[in-house]
Prior knowledge:
The structure holds two protein chains of two kinds. In chain A, 61% of the residues lie in helices and 7% in strands. By secondary structure, chain A is an alpha/beta fold. A seven-stranded mixed beta sheet of chain A has the order 3-4-5-2-6-7-9, with helices on both faces. Chain A has a two-stranded antiparallel sheet with strand order 1-10. In chain A, strands 8-11 form a two-stranded antiparallel sheet. The longest helix of chain B is centred in the N-terminal third of the chain and has 8 residues, at 24-31. The two termini of chain B are 19 Å apart. A six-stranded antiparallel beta sheet of chain B has the order 1-6-2-3-4-5. The chains are: A alpha/beta, B alpha+beta. Chains A and B meet through helix 3, helix 7, helix 8, helix 15 and strand 12 of A and helix 1 and strand 5 of B.
Amino acid sequence: MADTGAVLPLESASPAPSHRPCIALVGNPNTGKTTLFNRLTGLRARTANYPGITVDVKSGALNLSGVLTDVVDLPGLYSLHALSPEEQVTHAALTGNLSGHSVPDAVVLVLDATNLERNLFVASEVLDLKLPTIVALNQIDAAESEGITVDVDRLRRELNCPVVPLSARSGAGIDQLKQKLEELLVRRLPLLNLQHTSCTAGCSGCQFAARYDWAHRISGDAVTAPESHGWRTAAIDSVLTRPVIGVLVFLGLMLGIFYLIFSLAGIPMDLVDGFFGQLGEWVSDHLPSDSLNRPAWFGMASSLALAVLAMGYWGAEIRWTRTSAAAAAAVSIVAGLLPPDDFRSLLVDGVIGGIGGVLIFLPQICILFFLISLLEDSGYMARAAFVMERLMRFVGLPGKAFVPMLSAHACAIPGIMAARVIESWRDRLVTILVLPLLTCSARLPVYTMIASLLFAGSPLQAALVFVGAYLLGISAALGSAWLLKKTILRGDTVQLVIELPAYRLPSISNAVTMVVDRGLVFVRQAGSVILLISVILWGLATFPRLPEDAVSPSTQALQTQLAALEEAGETDNELQVKVDHLLAQESLSYSFAGRVGHLVEPIFRPLGFDWKINVGIITSFAAREVVVSTLAIVYGLGEEAADEDHQTLVETLRRQKRPDGSRVFNTATGLSLLVFFVLAMQCLPTQAVTRRETGSWKWAALQLIYMTGLAWLAAFATYQTLTAVAVV
Amino acid sequence: MTETRLSSVVFPGVFRCLDVLSDGEEAVRLKRMGICCGRLIQVVQVGDPMVIVAVGARVGVSRKLANSVVLEPVEVVTEAGFVDPVPVAAGELCGAHSDG
C-alpha cells in the first residue's frame, strides 16, 4: 500500500455534526472484536436486526470526553467479498448500503497480533475503502507471551493510520484507543492519511494473491515470531481433528453438556414454574370476585390489560403509532368489559400460564448458550464442525449443522438460533426447518405418559419406546434434510473451508453477554407472539361458557346433592372435587376447542384418535407437554392430576373405552399418538423463532405443514399396520 | 517439480499453490483463506476433510474443494517442522494462471 504523502483535511470525510458519531468495529472472526466491544461499551449493548434474514448487530454507547458515540460490533469477516448473510451486513455497513445507516464516521480495524499476516488481508480491503481508520492491534499480550514481537511504528508507517497495541481481555491499551478515537471524532485532529494506493492497483492477476503478497511483506517487516509458534494448537489438534477420536471426543463433550443442562436446569426450572404458579394464585386471590363497583372494575381490568399489551408491544418491538395505540385501547376496553371470572381466567390461565409455560425452558436455553459460547470462544467448535463434516455430508448438510442439531435435543429454539454458524443460507434454512423433529425436553412428559400407559410392567419395553422415539426423530430430521436438499431447496452442499483458530481460554464475560442477548430474544418472543397465541388458545378452550342447562344430568344430580349437603351445613370435599372436574370436562367439551375436536374426528380417526385426544392435540399446539394436562381435564381428572397423580392419570386413560367397548388407549393408538408427537410441529415458540431467523412466516408455515403432514402419515401407517397385524 | 492436486496429497508436507481451478463462490472461499497462487501450504493432516496451514492459520478443507487446488511440492521446512513463510510473489509465479 503506497504512501502518497498527502494528508487530507479530516473534514472531507467527517460526519455531519448533527448526528451521533458512529464507530464500526471490523475484523476477522476470532480477533477478540466482541471483547473489545464489551470493553468500550461496558456491556451496555443493544442488539439490532436487519431486514431480510436475522443478523444481529450489537451497538452500544461510548462517551468520549462528553461526546456520546455509537459503537457497532459488525460480524467478523474473512473478506469484503461477502458470502454469508453476516458478511454481507458488514460489507453493507462499511459501504453505507445498510438501510437507515450512512458510512461509519470511524472504523476500528481489529487485528490479531498473534497472526498479523492473515488479518492484514481484510485490513488491505478495509483500508481501500478510505474511511477514517484506527488499527486496534489486539491480543498483544498473548503475542508477547508466545515470543512474537510487533514493530508498531513500522506497522503504523506501512498502514498509514494510527495503530494502538492493546489487550481487550486485560484492558491494557484501551485508554489509548479511546484517546485516538477522541482525537479523530471530537477534536478532529488530522490523524489519517486517506489518500493511499491500493496494493491491487495495477494488478491484472489475482487480487487475492496481490493482497496476500502485500500482507506477507508488511508482516515480514513488522513481525518477528519464533519457529515454535503454534505448537500447542498443533499438538491438541493432533488428537481432536482425527476422524474417530475427534468424533468420540466431540460426542463425549456433548454428553457432558447435556448432563450439565439437565442437572443444573432442574432447580431454576422449578423456581420459574413455582414463580408463575404463585403469581397466578396471587393474582387470582387479589382480583375482586365480583364487579359491584363497575366503573372501578372496568378501570382496573382495562389498565391491567393495557399493561400486558404494552409488554407485548415491547417484546414484538411494535412502535406506538395511532393504529397500534387504537388497537391496544380497543383490546383493553374489551378486556375491561369481561365478567370478573372470565377476566381472572384470561389473566391467570391465558397470560400468566401461557408465558410461564414457555419461560420454564429459559434456564435450559441459557445454560446451553453459555456452554456453547465457551466452546466457541475456546476455538473448539470449529473442530466439532470439522470432524462431523463427513458424516453430515451424507444428508447434504455441512458439519456445522451438527451442533444446532445436538442443541435441539434440549430445545429447538437455541438450536435454531445456533444455526447462524452455517454460512450458506440454503443449508442454514434446511437445518432450521428440520430441527424441531429432534426430540426436545418438552416431548419427554408425553413419552413418559405413553410409555407408562403401554408398558407399565416392562421397564425394558418402556425404555425401547424412548429410544425408538429419539431414533425416529433423528431419522426423520436427517431424511427430511436430504429430501429438502433434493427438492425445494435443491443445491450442492457448500464444501468445507473452515479456519481452525488457535485454542485459547474462553471469556466468561463474552459468554454471559451472549446468554443475556439470546435469553432476551427468547423472553421477548414469550412476551409477544407467544402471549398472543396463548391468549387465543385460552379463548378457544374457554368459550363459549357452558350454560347451566347444558350440564349433563348426572353432573346436575351431583350438584344437587352437593347443594343439599351445603344447606345442611355439611361439606364433602371429595364430591366437590369430583363436580369441579366434571364441570371442567364438560366445559372443555362445550368450548370451541372441544367442538373442533369433534369436527376433526374424521381426520384423526384413521390414526386411532377420538375427539378427546383431538382436543389434546389442539390445546398442545402452544406447547407439546400441554397434552398431558389437557387429557387429564378431558378425562375428568382435573389439570392437577397431570402433575400430582401421574399413576391415576395413566390408570384412567387405560380404562377408557370406545362406544364399541374396545380400549381407547390400546397399543396401536398409544404408539400412533407417540409417533404423532415425535414428528408434529406442536410448539408455537419454535414457530415464532423460525419466523424470526428466516425473516418470513412462509418458512414457519412450511415447517408446520410438512411436519404435521409427516406426523399424520407416520401415525396413520403405525396405527393401520398395528391394527392389521392385530397388535391392539 | 511435478504439479499435483491438494486432494491427491498422501503424506503431510509443504507445497506451493500454483492455481485454484474452481470458479465463483468456491474459489473466493479458498482464496480469501490464503489458498491462492503463490502461497505456501503445509499439509498437516490428510483425509477428507484435511487440515492445512495457510498464511499462519490452520484451515480445514474438504477433499472435493481441495481437488481444485493445484500445487507443487517445495522443500522449505524448518528444523521445528514449520513452514518458512517465504512464498514467491504472485506476480512472479502466476503469469500462466491469471485467475489465481
